[in-house]
Amino acid sequence: MGRKWNNIKEKKAMKDKNTSRIYAKFGREIYVAAKQGVPDPESNQALKFVLERAKTYNVPRHIIDRAIEKAKGGSDENYDELRYEGFGPNGSMIIVDALTNNVNRTAADLRAAFNKNGGNLGVTGSVSYMFDSTAVIGLEGKTEDEVLEILMEADLDVRDIFEEDDAVIIYAEPEQFHAVQESLKNTGIEEFTVAELTMLPQTEVTLSGEAKEQFEKLIDVLEDLDDVQRVYHNVDLDQ
Question: Which segments constitute the TACO1/YebC-like second and third domain (predicted)?
Answer without folding.
Answer: 79-235
